[in-house]
Amino acid sequence: MAETTKSKVIIRNLQSEDIPQVVELQKASFPLMAAEGVYWKPDHLKAHLDVFPEGQFVAAYKDKIIGSCSSLIIKLDSEYKEHTWKEACGGSLFKNHNPKGDSLYGADVSAHPDFRRLGVATKLYDSRKELAIKLGLRRIISGGRLINYGENAKKMTPLEYVQKVKRHEIKEPVLSFQLRNGFKFIKILPDYMKDPRSLNYATFIEWKNPHFVE
Fold first, then answer.
1. Residue 38 included in any domain
2. How many whole angstroms separate alpha carbon 20 and alpha carbon 157?
3. Do 129 and 183 contact (CB within 8 A), yes or no?
4. pLDDT band at 34, cuts 50/70/90?
5. Could you tell me the pTM of the whole model?
């Protein structure tokens, strides 16, 4: 049944009529952050469509939006510059979107908790990879929340935590998923975004476009 359902999950670009569902998806996907008001509002999503419609995707199952991801194109001052989420994106309105940049920046991925065994996030990541290849971008980069670090912070540093995740000694759903999907861990990003579960730490991750031509 799950396999049949998987095949019925469709990835497509976000449309304006999807926005109310994506707002509710955000609240369901990130309840702790949503409780503090940290989630996409309708005006944010409208701005994303205005600046870069090709970079906004949703996962639809029947008539329900069960996943989404938001992206923009940027160029860092230096290849692996330490940054916060706000510095990279230019805030929630994606003011830093630069069509002449070289990197697709993954600002957000959400999957509804009731539909997380359907490969929704993988399908969304694959759509980003296809877009990066289509646009001739050099890479995809992002800051990935270390969502279980807070439970381990008294025992180890964020870097030690990441190393244990890479050795499969600690279960970390976000980073483990990203590594399985071909992303490389670059460095720790402190104070990346307000997130009590990660104590605001994130990982700088990178996927290089194998088809990129200088």
1. yes
2. 39
3. no
4. confident
5. 0.93
Q: What's the CA gap between 179 and 200, in Å, rounded?
A: 20
Distance, CA of 8 to CA of 136 (rounded, Å): 29
Predicted confidence (pLDDT) per residue in 114-152, tens digit: 987 889 999 999 999 999 999 999 999 999 999 999 999
Distance between CA 87 and CA 82 in Å, rounded? 10
Residues ≥6 apart with Cβ < 8 Å to 1: none
Q: Is 185 left (phi over 0), alpha (psi -120 to 50) or beta?
A: beta
User: Has residue 213 been placed in a domain?
Assistant: no
Domain span at 147: 2-208
DSSP bridge partners of 143: 204
Distance of CA 141 to the CA centre of its chain: 9
CATH number at residue 120: 3.40.630.30
* Selection from 122, 4, 9, 132 nearest residue 71 by Cα: 132
Q: Where are the alpha helices (DSSP H) in the chain?
A: 2-7, 19-29, 31-35, 42-51, 85-89, 120-135, 158-166, 173-180
Give the Cα separation of 195 and 205 in Å (integer): 18
Q: Per the domain annotation, does 214 fall within a domain?
A: no
Q: Are strands 103-111 and 139-145 parallel, antiparallel or unpaired?
A: parallel
Predicted confidence (pLDDT) per residue in 55-76, tens digit: 999 999 988 999 999 999 999 9
Q: Tokens at residue 156, please?
A: 């180890």
